User: What shape does this take?
Amino acid sequence: MSDKKIRVRIATSPTGEPHVGTAYIALFNYCFAKANGGEFILRIEDTDQTRSTRESEESIYKALSWLGFKWSEGPDVGGPCAPYRQSERTDIYKKHSDILLNNGSAYRCFCSSERLDEMRKKLIAEKKNFFYDGLCRNLSREESDRRAAAGESYVVRMAIPRDEGAVTSFHDEIRQKAIELAHTEIDDQILMKADGFPTYHLANVVDDHLMSISHVIRAEEWITSTPKHVLLYKAFGWEAPKFAHVSLLRNADKSKVSKRKNPVSLNWFRAAGYTKEAITNFLGLMGYNSGSENERFTIEDISRDFTIDRISTSAPIFDLQKLNVLNEEYIRKYSVDKYIEYLSETTAYAAQYLRPILGEIQSRHKISQDFQFWARIFFTPGIAYSKEAFAIKEMDKPSLEKALKGAADALDESKAVKPDEFEKAIAGHRDSSGIKMGSYMMALRVALTGSSTSLPLNDVMAMLGRDRTIMRLKEANAFVRNNIK
Ligand code: GLU
Assistant: This one.
């Protein structure tokens, strides 16, 4: 290991709810920093201004703190390398993009979106990936400066070295081998967008360098970006950090964990009553070989003798049943006082989570357990369906299947988020299906809630979100197919 001070980071993009994968990567970074007396830093990568929100950023802080992670530097706590929010560092990226323009490692590209679209279409027709043809790479610096000064819009692209047979490689600290990428596979990457914001590649490398990051421990999905980053470090004349790519969490069918198959939001897990102890233990179990038979451990336990080469190279399966078992175990071990604290905290958190529809729940409130009654369908990963519930007036098996499949397909094509958008998304299929509106909606109600009484259906769909709504419709359809005559 180099004698450089250990500094690692979690560099999340604040788009949507905090993802369980973020906690998974945070765990390894945090334990590595703790085991080596290093620093764990939180950076917000919000250069995609169309998708990033402050609300999401806040919920990342809350979720990671809840799980027990503490960062010594970050947008919320400051630090010597502030600002830690990329949208506040645009002048730094501009300065660094100029360095690359000046030393010939990057060039301005003035190609219009029409020209690029043409190129894209042509390459798609030839079944090839998009690859910029390098037209603007041949512009003289004078012409490039003149056009930029005249106010023409441009992006800055990286001039990937095109020498015959050129390859860039790096050593992966988990895989313990060199990973290489031929330059023929690397397009001249955009580093600065026309709006003056950097792309991930430039911002990530500049920040990791300026924040003295010693080890980049991140998800495997970035592994093909790393050679590009290594080229950028070279172009700046900087020493690259060490790199470790952690295998992605998988569903039981080996596909990458996604909202369509499993709950992935840390907010959801918290509201659903999962304990932080169970979640961190579960994440550790999935990806870390603790070196002991004992499968019960805390973040502190893992931190004690954490080494990067003990991170698993195989794709860990996200098995919700296993998490449920752990969760039960932890709860049963709580003292009664701790259990009371857990119950009240979880209920309050669940109520906050359901805030958008809390008014509907409140208006049905008669006795104290009513909140739990109405809330439960949002926090169960799947519904236990019964044949009786699907015995709906005028709905035989083909009509049930038609309604459930048609609604799922319609939602798949929509971008519904708000209740009325859900209504609009399914109205077309429903009204042309030849099925009575009430019966059609009842089939959906049973599919989403397991019951014939529920909160307003459009609210239910909006609260579940499009992915989980589609998932439930599909699960219900499978139930109907296999269980209804
Ligand atoms: N912003 C990237 C993410 O959200 C960071 C990847 C990295 O760690 O380099 O995962």
Remarks:
- The chain has three domains: 7-74+249-322, 89-246, 388-483.
- Residues 11-13, 45, 204, 218, 222 surround glutamic acid (CB under 6 Å).
- The beta strands are 7-12, 39-44, 106-109, 155-158, 167-172, 177-182, 190-192, 215-219, 242-246.
- DSSP finds 19 helices and nine strands in the chain.
